[in-house]
Amino acid sequence: MSRCTVDDWTSSAPDRKHEQVRWILESPYPPVPADLTARAASQGRRMLHRRLLLRRLLLVTATLAVVALVVLAVVTWPGDTPSGPPATPPPVSG
Amino acid sequence: MRGDKEAARVRRAHEFEAFAGGAAGRLLHVATLLTCDDAKAADRLLCHALARTYLRWDRLRGEDPYAYARQELVTSYARRAGVGWLHPRRREETGRLAGLTPQERVIVVLRLFEGVEDEQVAALLGIAPDRVTALCTRACVLLRGGAQAPAASFAGRAAPASGR
Description:
The complex is a heterodimer. Chain A has 2 helices and no strands. By secondary structure, chain A is mostly helical. By secondary structure, chain B is mostly helical. Chain A: Keywords: Membrane, Transmembrane, Transmembrane helix.
C-alpha cells in the first residue's frame, strides 16, 4: 500500500490519500446480469469448438501434404534404370 | 471415449459456473471501472474474459482462475483501447475514472482496488515497476483533484519516460 508513493508527494499520510481513492473506486457495485455466466460459457464453448475444428483442419491438411509428398517421391524417384554409357554413341560432327 | 469427453465437458461446465458465479460480481466491478461506467462495454469485456477463461479451464493446472480472468480482462481492455493505449489522450468521458488514460485506469484499479503488487502490474503491462509507481501516484492526484478541485497542473504534463 505504501509503494504507490514518490518523494514529491507532499502529504505525510499517503495511505489516507489512497483510502480516498479506494473509496471512489469501491462506491456502488453494479448488479451482475443473471445470464452473464451462461452467455460467457456458451461463448467459451463456441471458441473451444472453433479451435478444435481449426486444429482438425490443420491436422488433415498436414496429413494430406505428407501423403502427397510420399506419392510424388515414389512416382518420380530415379529407379534401377541402367545409367551406364548409352548403347549408341552420339554422332560425331565436323 | 465419447462418454469420457461428455463427462469432462459437464465437469468443466459445473466448475466454471461455480467459479463465474462467485467471481463475476467483483470482475464486473473491475470492468465497469475500466470502461468508465459504461455498463454495456463492461458486460461485453467481462463476457469475453470469462469465455477465454472457459477456453483455458482444463489447462489452468493450479493457476488461480480469478487471476487469469482478471488478466484476460485487462489485456482485452488494452487491445480495445488500441491506439489510445500507446498515445493516450484524455477523452471526454463520464464515470469515476474518466479523467485518466486507459493505462492509468488499469494501474489504479489493479493497485488500489485489486491490491496487486507493483511488480506484477508492471509485468502484466510490460513497463518498468518505477513507471507503475509514478503513474499510480499521478492518477491518485488526478482523482483526488477531480473529487475536490481540478488539478490543472497535472492534466497536460507529459509522463516521465523512464519506463519505455
